[in-house]
Amino acid sequence: MVLGVLIVACCVVFAVWRLVKPRSASPPMNSEKLVSDLSLSCIALALWSWFKPRSVKSPPMYPGWLPLIGHGYQLMGDERHFWKREKRVVEFCLQNNDLIEMRLGSHSLFVLTDPEDSLTVANNCLEKPYIYHYADNVYGRGLLTTKVDIWKTHRKLLNPAFNPHVLQSFVGEYCRQAKRLVSSLASEAGNGPFDIQPYLVPNVLTTAYRTTFGTKVDENSETLKIYEEATDKILMLILERTKYIWLHLPFIYKLTTSGREFDKRAKILKDITESVIANRKLQLKAANQLDKLEESTTEGLVPLLDRMLDLADKQNVLNDDDIKEHLDTIVGAAYDTTATALTFILILIGSHPDIQEKMYQELQKVLDDEDRDINKHDLPQLVYMEAVIKETLRLYPPAPRFARTSNIDVKLKNYTLPANSTYIVSLYGLHRHVMWGPDKDQFIPERWLDPARLPKNPNFFAAFCLGRRNCIGRLYGIMAIKTTLSYLLRHYRILSDIEQLELQCNVLIRPVSGHFISLESRV
Ligand code: HEM
Prior knowledge:
The structure is a single chain. The chain is α+β, with helices and mostly antiparallel strands. The protein has a single domain (about 55-520), classed as CATH 1.10.630.10. Helix content is about 55%, strand content about 10%. Strands 1-2-6-3 form a four-stranded mixed sheet, sandwiched between helices. A two-stranded antiparallel ribbon has the order 4-5. Strand 1 and strand 2 form a beta hairpin. The radius of gyration is 26 Å and the shape is globular. About 40% of the residues are buried. It binds protoporphyrin IX containing FE.
C-alpha cells in the first residue's frame, strides 16, 4: 500500500511538474510530449484508484472493478444487458449482508438491500447525487432532482395539490381516458398476442398531461406525440450518460451528438410547456378564475398548473421557471411509471386467471353489477385489486432503485460510509429480501390482506420509494391504475404468459416486449 501511494505521488508530481514547468527558454512543447504527459497522468490516476486506501472496515467490493473506470465497463451494452447486470449486482448484495461497494470511475457507490439501512439512508440523506443533475436543464427545479433546501420548501407547497380531495376531482378524467383505451383496444380483442405498451403509454400520458396542464389534448395530438418523444429521448440520454463515464464531464458531453441531442429535446419540452403556461395565464386572467380556485368543488378538474399559478399569484413563491420544471417533472415521473406498472399487472393477472376472476367478482360487487362509471367512492372499496397492484409492484417495481448522497458520514448498522459517496437503494432487492418470507419470489396478492404475512414495518414496501423524499404521486398512480383496470376487466379477459417475460431497463424496468398479452371480449 505504502509503495502504491509512493508511486502515485511520484507520478503525479512528475506529471504536474512537466505540465507547469516554465518554458520560456525551452522550445515549444510538441505533441509527442503532450501525449506522454497525458499518458503519465492517466497512469498516475489509474495507480491511485487501484492503490487508494480503503477503510479497514469497508463493505465487500463487487467483483471485477478496474483502475480508472471502476465497474463502469460492466454497465455498457443494451437495455437487456443493463438489467441483467443490475440484477446480478442486487443478487450479490443480497448474498453479502445487503451492502456492497462498487466504483464508477474512482467514485464509490454503495448498493443497499438491507431494510433498516435503506430507511436510514432514505431519511437522512435527502440530497440527490450528481447523476440526477444530468437532467438539470430540463427538470432541475422539479421535486425529483432539485437541491434539498429548495426541495423542502417546494414539497411543502406542492403536497396539498396531491391530497385525496384534489385527486378525487381527477377521477372523471381517469374514467374518460380508460374508456378511450377500451375502445382503442377493441381491434386487438380475439386477434392473439400483441404489444400493449404502445396503447398504454400515450393513454396514461394524456391523463397526466390533462390533469397537470389542463389543456384539452387528445392522445393523437401532434403536441403530445412530440412531448412524449422528447421526454422518452431525454430519459434515454440520461441513462446513456450515466453508463459511459467519459460523458460525465460536461465540456466533453456538450461536444458529443448525444449532448447536442439532449439540448435539442430539452428545448422542445421547454417551448411546449412555456407556451402552455403563457396561454393558461391569459385564459385564467380573462376569466378571472384564479380567485375562484379555492372554492372549486371536487367535481371540477383543477389542473396542477392552475394550483401552481395560484401559489405564484397569492404567495409569490413560485416563478415561471419553477412552475415549468415542476410540471415537466410531474408528467415525466407520472406517465411511464404508471403505464409500466399497468403492463406488469396485466401480464401477471393474464397469467393467473383465478386472481383475475377474483378481481372481476370484487369489481362487479362494488358496482352492484351495474354498467356505470367508476366514481371516487368505488375506488377505496377495491381492496383485492389494491392487493394485486401492490403485489405486482413488489415483484416488479418500475423504478427499481433510487440514489442519494450526503455531505457527512452515514452511520449504518455495520459500517460508517464516507461522506460524498453515492448510495443506491435497490427497491427490487428490498422487495426480494428474506423478510417477505420463503414465498418472496411468488405472486401472492393475498399476503396484503394478512398482516402476519407482511414485514413488520409497512414502509418496506418501497415501490414508491422510502422515507421523506418519497413519491408525491403515489395516490394519484394507484387511483389511475385502479380506474383503468376496472374498465379493462369489465370489457376484456386478459391472457398472458409470465414464463415468457424478459426484462430490460433504461431508467425503469419494463418487459422487452408486451407481445404476450391477448384480449378476449367479455361481452
Ligand atoms: C406506479 C406509479 C409510480 C411509481 C412506481 C413511482 C415511483 C417513484 C419513485 C421510486 C420515486 C423516487 C425516485 C427517486 O428518488 O429516484 C418517485 C418520485 C416521484 N414521483 Fe413517482 N411513481 C409513480 C407515479 C407517479 C405519479 C402518478 C406522479 C405524479 C402525478 C409521480 C411523481 C413523482 C415525483 C414528483 C417524484 C419526486 C418526489 C420528490 O422528490 O419529492 N409519480 N416516484
